């Protein structure tokens, strides 16, 4: 199963052998985590997003140091209110748990969960939140890997899902037939070629 957690949606893709057998989209993503932080802490969305990126952690149990955080845009009477990082991570953890719980119910209702033996996790909505794979494994009860690799940091965010799909395809036994005809081209035609190969993989 491939899970692409984006800003506003989480896309689900399930593969069986070389066939693409199920897809769905859940209207929850990274923006919901940001909104939760802003609402619960009563701060601006800009600061909420900054805190999510700075302290992003999917499970409170992995906190090393429960640091103090000064809220610069607090709308409470105390403008420089101080919270613990554990309070912030609790908010992140709750929403991530909800996303994985909804995914679990969806694939269970489709009769697919017992067939899935691996989950590949990717997407801009989750990439900055550490231990998301562990949270996924706990909630789904299926092994979860974050599809990043060393090269992902050099890939533009808009292309990361394609990059993850290509990495998945490259791991398949027939990968050489997919990749061997991709020659060195300019960026635009290269991405177009990759997308055509992905379409062939999904629909052939």
Provide an overview of this structure:
The protein contains 7 helices and 7 strands. It has 204 residues and is of the alpha/beta class. The protein has a single domain (1-147), classed as Nucleotidyltransferase, domain 5 (2-Layer Sandwich). Helix 5 crosses helix 7 (187-203). It starts with a strand and ends with a helix.
Mean pLDDT: 80
**Strand arrangement across the biggest beta sheet:** 3-2-1-6-7
In N-to-C order, the SSE pattern is EEEHHEEHEHEHHH
**CATH class placement:** Alpha Beta
Q: Under the CATH scheme, which architecture would be assigned?
A: 2-Layer Sandwich
Q: Please report the distance between the alpha carbons of the first and last residues.
A: 19 Å
C-alpha-based Rg, rounded: 19 Å
- Which structural class should the secondary elements be placed in? alpha/beta
Strand fraction: 15-25%
Gist?
The chain has 204 residues and is α/β, with parallel strands linked by helices. It has helices at residues 30-41, 45-55, 85-109, 132-140, 160-170, 175-179, 187-203; strands at residues 2-5, 10-16, 19-26, 68-70, 82-84, 119-122, 144-146. The strands form 2 sheets. A 5-stranded mixed sheet has the order 3-2-1-6-7, with helices on both faces. Strands 4-5 form a two-stranded antiparallel ribbon.
Could you outline the blueprint of secondary structure elements for this entry?
Layout lengths: L1 E4 L4 E7 L2 E8 L3 H12 L3 H11 L12 E3 L11 E3 H25 L9 E4 L9 H9 L3 E3 L13 H11 L4 H5 L7 H17 L1
Parallel strand pairs: 1-6, 6-7
Antiparallel strand pairs: 1-2, 2-3, 4-5
């Amino acid at each position: 199963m491939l899970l692409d957690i984006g800003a506003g949606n989480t896309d689900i893709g399930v593969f069986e052998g070389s066939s693409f057998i199920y897809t769905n989209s859940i209207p929850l993503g990274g923006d919901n985590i940001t909104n939760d932080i802003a609402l619960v802490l009563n701060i601006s969305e800009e600061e909420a997003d900054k805190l999510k990126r700075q302290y992003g952690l999917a499970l409170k149990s992995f906190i090393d140091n429960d640091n103090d955080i000064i809220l610069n845009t607090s709308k409470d009477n105390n403008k420089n209110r101080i919270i613990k990082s554990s309070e912030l991570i609790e908010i992140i953890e709750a929403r991530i748990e909800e996303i994985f719980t909804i995914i679990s119910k969806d694939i269970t209702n489709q009769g697919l969960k017992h067939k899935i033996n691996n989950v590949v996790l990717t997407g801009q909505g989750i990439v900055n939140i550490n231990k998301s794979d562990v949270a996924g494994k706990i909630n789904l009860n299926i092994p979860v890997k974050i599809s990043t690799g060393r090269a992902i940091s050099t890939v533009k965010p808009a292309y990361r899902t394609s990059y993850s799909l290509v990495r998945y395809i490259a791991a398949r036994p027939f990968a050489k037939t997919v990749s061997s005809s991709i020659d060195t081209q300019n960026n635009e035609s290269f991405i177009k070629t990759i997308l055509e190969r992905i379409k062939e993989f999904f629909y052939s």
